[in-house]
Design goal:
single chain, 223 residues, mainly alpha, 7 helices, 83% helix
């Protein structure tokens, strides 16, 4: 009986390759999250001052460019830890502001962490188990994130609390969609570089956490 063995072999190799990328991505993501949390803990304990929006943006985009440029070499791992460590350093002072500014600050931070974990695990797990293709969301997410980012800058520059809350709400929805999109890309071979996949998921988790913390502080914070 005739069988198309080359095609079957290629299919098996493709599945094995995809599974390897997924495994490496979630392994590296776990390590970078722990490292980022450790840096954030140091920044919190040492009471580091906030970096400011300009330093944060320059540091983020600079390290993101470096990670992208070195993604296919061993230096890519160094770059991704530098990026996530830097982002962790920006979280520490923010957490300090909430802990010192609200009597229930610790509870707000824990609720934001728990909510972030539940949302990420739920959405990423859903995309992994159902294997649904969410690539159709790419254009919408790109435009939505750009608009929300610009609106967030406007809210920060002109000090508009209402707009800032709206941006946080939008980012929660957008980051949820991006988690589905990024996980789907891993499953269907749209993303084959585990370093860039890790960075993309980390950024979603980072923004999701800060947006949830902002919303919780506004509606459940006790001064």
């Amino acid at each position: 009986m005739f069988t198309n063995e080359p095609a079957i072999t290629r299919s098996r190799e493709s599945i094995l390759s995809t599974n390897k990328v997924i495994r490496n991505t979630y392994t590296l993501l776990s390590m970078t999250l722990l490292f980022s949390a450790a840096v954030a803990g140091v920044a919190y304990q040492q009471n580091w001052p906030p970096m400011g929006i300009i330093v944060t943006l320059v540091g983020f985009f600079g390290l993101m460019f470096l990670t992208n440029a070195t993604r296919n070499s061993g230096w890519g791992l160094v770059s991704v830890f530098a990026l996530t460590g830097f982002m962790g350093a920006t979280i520490g002072p923010i957490v300090n502001l909430y802990v010192s500014g609200f009597s229930n600050g610790h509870e707000l931070v824990m609720m934001a962490m728990g909510g972030t974990g539940v949302i990420f695990l739920g959405l990423s797990g859903y995309a992994l188990t159902t294997r649904k293709d969410f690539s159709f969301m790419g254009g919408f997410l790109m435009v939505g994130i750009l608009v929300a980012f610009l609106a967030g800058l406007g809210a920060a520059v002109f000090n508009i609390p209402g707009l800032s809350l709206a941006v946080s709400g939008a980012f929660i929805l957008l980051m949820g969609g991006k988690i589905l999109y990024d996980t789907s890309a891993l499953v269907h071979g749209g993303e084959t570089n585990y370093i860039m996949a890790t960075v993309s998921l980390y950024v979603s988790i980072y923004n999701l956490f800060l947006s949830l913390l902002h919303m919780l502080g506004a509606f459940a914070g006790e001064r």
